[in-house]
Amino acid sequence: MASKSTRLTAFADHLDGVAATLPRQDLGWLQELRAAARDRYAAAGLPTPRLESWKFTNLNRLPRVGFTAAALAEAPAVDSVPVGAAIAAEGAVVVLVNGRFRADLSNLADLPKGATVLGIADALETQDGLLETHLDRIAGESDASLAALNTAQLADGVYLHLAEGVTLERPLHVISIGAARGEPVAFHPRLLLIAEPGSHGCILESHVGAGDGAYFTNTVVEASVGEGAVLQHYKLQNDHPAAWHTATTGVELAARAVYDSFVLQIGGHMARNEIIARILGSHAECHLNGTYLLRGKQHADNTTLIDHAAPESTSREVYKGVVDDQARGVFQGKILVRRNAQKTDGHQVNKTLLLSRGAEIDSKPELEIYADDVKCGHGATAGELDEDALFYLQARGIDPETARGLLIEAFIGETIDEILRPTMRNALRDIVAGWLTDGRHDGATGNTGVGT
Amino acid sequence: MTSLLDIKNLRAGIGGKEILKGLDLTIGAGEVHAIMGPNGTGKSTLSYVLAGREGYEVTSGDILYKGKNLLDLEPNERACDGIFLAFQYPVEIPGVAGTTFLKAALNAVRKHRGEDELDAMQFLKHVRGKAKELGVGDEMLKRAVNVGFSGGEKKRNEVLQMAVLEPSLAILDETDSGLDIDALKVVADGVNAMRSPDRSMLIITHYQRLLGYIEPDHVHVLANGRIVASGGKELAQELEASGYAQYTNADAA
């Protein structure tokens, strides 16, 4: 176990080192934001398993990897997006390499009037008023030390603004590339998504790796979904097998807002995706769905909080995963219904298929309800593939691998079907199918672990 | 001519408990055999052993199918080679569309036979005619396999799969259970339409009722894990009148 001092001092040298490189040090509010975040991080340090919300995911080994701040490392030569690793989608593309906006790899043509997409560093030049209003307002929880670590060195990322009533027909695709050459690097992308009242938009995040070494990506996303606005937000975490991925997403929903989220975790060595959605208006709809497909010794954590702070809103949450070999999944889902949030309708489901004896899932559903007229429920299951179904399929001539694949795709399909955007369902199904195919290739070379 | 299926002195069971205790059975090409017997005598065990279900252990004896040792083959290899088990309790598979399932099955079998795999359009064309005869509409085809189906729908679906996969040996395990008289007739008509010199059938049933619709060439009585009597179709009618007691008692004595 890392000593207390390691935990508290981890990445402190990064903060010292990058301080002089940060953009817009002339903005007083921004420097204050960074300094306050630095104080919060210094007080809390990296999260430890002693914290209730970090019970199942241990970052003690993270400081020992020996990361260098990407801003101080040699700039990686990335001149294209890794083929096939990201979500397949049409529309505008924003590429970040080690957290830095790369205009040369991005394509922001065809954005409708009223839709603004910029790198955060550029946005700080021209949109600093809106940034001052929103940055760190949503994700700046005092106990979120990873978010504080991000804010303390806030430099670049993606800014999306949809003006009132504007519709973004095609998705905006943020591709965050981690690229390390030998030396492990750490970077902290920032996404600020503002959907003004009545606007409609779809944002995709693909997190992929391009280099051959370990990296630590610590993203913070803040999303404000205004009255009657619709924000679809679909994320693929397909990082390099040696990567550490943490992400904190804070979302605010105003009255009648719809936030539709899906997180597909298949990559990385250790990944944690945390979503905090606060429902601040009535008749809002919040959908948090996701899937984790893990093998080898991967660890992936999905932690969510849906905070019903207004009456008569709805939340739906379906997370389903498949865990093989010695991999470990974590699901922590909390629904908080505050005293005034009467007529809340909240439902949460977490189901996991364990494909081998060494696989593990820790599932912690949690309802905390202070209102007395609500409809809330949750369910969590973990199990193996249905032997009867497997035999039935094989008794019709279907080979065992294909039979397992059909059952796994069907299992995961139930959560993918929750996605509001039909084209995205197909794109994610293809990724699931690809994951299954990869597993078969591993099997052929003897890399797959024990069966039952 | 050589037999399609030749079972010799088969001993098998599950969980260390022997259920089949020296069973002999020979089925020739194109023949329809019925196995009757009281509950718990090993009728379903026989069907699962033939289909290759995991957990059923064969302790001694041989099963030759098309001249090969059937026990060497995995369940899917047996199915590709023409063995079809119509399940007593067809399994519900949520999330897998009937068409997806049946197309995967048909293409696996076709591939094994050296035939071209069918694409979605060719497949639907191939299946629709057969489905219509069995009262299986497009809507039922597309639904998740057996999920929410009535007893009759499940059995019709089994016979449809059989019609699509065109097996050499169809094993019908209690196919009449849970069917009303109309559904029984539809299912029986479907099975009868498939009778052919190239196709053998093994009908496993407790009651004579089904055999009034699907007339067997041979009838066997299974009691206490062995075939204790064999005869023509008239044997089924005798059993209906006299019951199984004479066989079970005789065996116990």
Structural class of chain A: alpha/beta
The helical percent of chain A reads 10-25%
Biggest interface between chains: A-B, 23 and 33 residues
How many β-strand stretches of chain B? 12
Largest sheet of chain B, described in full?
Answer: 6 strands, mixed
**Tell me about the biggest sheet of chain A?**
11 strands, mixed
The helix count of chain A comes to: 9
Shape label of chain B: globular
Number of helices of chain B: 9
Distance from first to last alpha carbon of chain A: 33 Å
Mean pLDDT of chain A: 93
The secondary-structure class of chain B comes to: alpha/beta
| Total beta strands of chain A | 21
Distance between the termini of chain B: 38 Å
Write down the oligomeric state.
heterodimer
Radius of gyration of chain B: 18 Å
Strand content of chain B: 25-35%
Mean pLDDT of chain B: 93
Indicate the proportion of strand residues of chain A. Answer: 35-45%
Shape of chain A: globular
Give a quick precis of the structure.
Chain A is α/β, with parallel strands linked by helices. Chain A contains 9 helices and 21 strands.
What does this structure look like?
The complex is a heterodimer of chains A (452) and B (253). With 452 residues, chain A is α/β, with parallel strands linked by helices. Chain A has nine helices and 21 strands. Chain B is of the alpha/beta class and 253 residues long. Helix content of chain B is 37%, strand content 30%. Chain B is built from nine helices and twelve strands. In chain B, the strands form three sheets. Chain B has a six-stranded mixed sheet with strand order 6-9-10-3-11-12, with helices on both faces. Chain B has a four-stranded antiparallel sheet with strand order 2-1-4-5. The longest helix of chain B is centred in the middle third of the chain and has 15 residues, at 98-112. The model of chain B has no long low-confidence stretch (mean pLDDT 93). Classes of the chains: A alpha/beta (452), B alpha/beta (253). The A-B interface holds A 386-389, 391-400, 402-403, 406-407, 409-411, 413-414 and B 51-54, 74-76, 78-80, 84-85, 87, 90-96, 100-102, 104-106, 108-109, 112, 144-145, 161, 165.
